[in-house]
Amino acid sequence: MRPSPVITHLSPEELDAREPVLPRVAQMLRPYRRKIALVLVAVLASAALTSVVPFLVRAVFDNALFPLDGSPPDLGLLGWLVAGMCVIPVVTALIGIGQNWLTSTVGNSAMADLRGDLFEHLQKMELAFFTATKTGAIQSRLANDVAGVRTVLTDTATTIVQNSVTVTAALVSMLVLSWQLTILTLILMPLFIWLQLRVGRRRQRLARRTQESLSEMTSITEEALSVSGILLAKVFNRSPQEVQRYREANQRQTRLQVEQAMTGRTFFAVVQTFFAITPALIYLVAGWIITGTSVIGTDTLTAGTLVAFTTLQSRLQMPLLQLMRVSLDVQTSLALFRRIFEYLDLEPAITERPDAVSLDHDTIRGRVELRGVSFRYPEPRALSGAANRDRFGDSGVRIGSDEEADRPAGDGWALRDVSLVVEPGELAAIVGPSGSGKTTTTYLVPRFYDVTEGAVLIDGHDVRDLTLSSLADAVGMVTQEPYLFHGTIRDNIAYACPDAPAEAIEQAARDANIHDRIMSFPEGYETITGERGYRLSGGEKQRLAIARVLLKDPAILILDEATSALDTETERLVQEALERATRSRTTIAIAHRLSTIQSADVIYGLAEGRIVERGTHEELLADPDGLYARLYVEQFSRPGGPRPSYDERRADVPL
Length: 655
Prior knowledge:
- The protein has helices at 12-18, 21-28, 33-65, 75-124, 127-131, 135-148, 150-177, 179-186, 189-224, 227-235, 239-262, 265-291, 303-344, 403-406, 438-444, 468-474, 489-494, 502-511, 515-520, 538-552, 568-582, 617-621, 627-637, 646-650; strands at 368-375, 415-422, 427-431, 453-458, 461-462, 475-478, 556-560, 586-590, 602-607, 610-615.
- By secondary structure, the chain is of the alpha/beta class.
- The chain has two domains: 12-344, Up-down Bundle (ABC transporter transmembrane region fold); 368-378 and 397-641, Rossmann fold.
- Helix 3 runs antiparallel to helix 13 (303-344).
């Protein structure tokens, strides 16, 4: 068996060293490089136009209003300069509108791609991933984490480029005007950058903790407010405790949000204070320079130069502050990107080989063979940090009821050297005590898990050599607790074949003994089933599941205790439907009610993960010390057990 990769708890720096996040983000934006190039052109044009304004201001003072040669004001030149100062903001605003449209399109499209890729990747993950991961945690990564990086993809990248270009242009212009005043303006910048990096690392850690807390809240909401969760809380009067659990998680989220919001506020207050008092210092130093008392130079400053410089300085400060804030946002978003990439980096344990063979639906015979199969459940794969708490919870949807019970507590083997054959068209039954490996055996046929040793074959093909889609088409399953999504009865049946005509859907319902019941509802096939089918009875849900698998028409059918926990009349209806479903197809049935499998062509007795006997109902009953005979006697002799049929009562069976 291929070992499952494990992602251990790593710091952000260690994660970046293993595979940097930013190159992956850049690769994600690669399909939109043309639009990004247009954004860069718009940013450069806007920055260039903005840099011209201070020089126009200097010309207004030194050439138009107060010419340095002492001549009268030049109103004609002033008019042209003022016109230029008015046109530039208008052009810049128009460029900004187009730039915002481009960035919004790129960012939201990239976010949609990321969300779609994550959903597609999760669809490829093996069943074990979902049985060990909370549904709420998965939903949180799809919704909250992806939404959390939206700002980076829509606004932040453009803000970084735009402000970087603006700062560069402003610095060059300031150096041209006065290098001495520029040095004074930037003297504390190295200290500010160092402090900003420290604040950014703290913000990144807080962002990760905040998202993990939000994931926990989503999980609590999904569990507590589902129909099953509400019903459980009401039955055991646990609603107050559920409210308290949510309030505690909510308070943790609030504390983290406040802490994240306040982190760096003191730093930015210091930076803003410095920028606020810098103009006053500039005027003081300018006075020293003009009077010749400055130790940093004796250049002569004109009034226009000083006004232009302070204008540039004010335009430099805001982009610098924005760059510092944005850099913190980027580091915060990197934590979210890492959480998303953690899921994307998990390789599915069940994969399709490049040379996989496709089963032909029209020619498949349906012969199933387990050849020397041994199996142990793989260890759940760990995610980094507290994200590992996403796992080991109820995934919300269980495909079978016995999977956890099948996990052995001994040497770790769920199945040991199991060999069995089900010929085409046969009905094979698997019986045994709880935890013997019955459900595990059936999960290996559709390749929900891969065998540890041995092989599972369909028509002589190892299932690992088959395409996943053709294998899924060949195998159908009806479970003890069928899953119905919140939709109409028609949609739930048609899930197996969305393009099926209404006649085929209704015929499948008739064959499943549910058509008449559906038509008794006021809305017929358009009746809403409710979440997980809670508006329907257990027998109705079971027959809908049978109708769904009949519509699929698989060559191989697996019945996982499909008639357990049903009343006698409902069981009769379901059993009739199952008899129709098993005609002309290979069927593997797991049953606790032995009365439902007496007509099986072959019955396998499973105990502690091993096949201990094989035979027909009559053959197995002939051995009073056998597993099947003991289960039969125990079931039909205990108080409240199922009443034997007439034929059973006639049989020479020691009860």
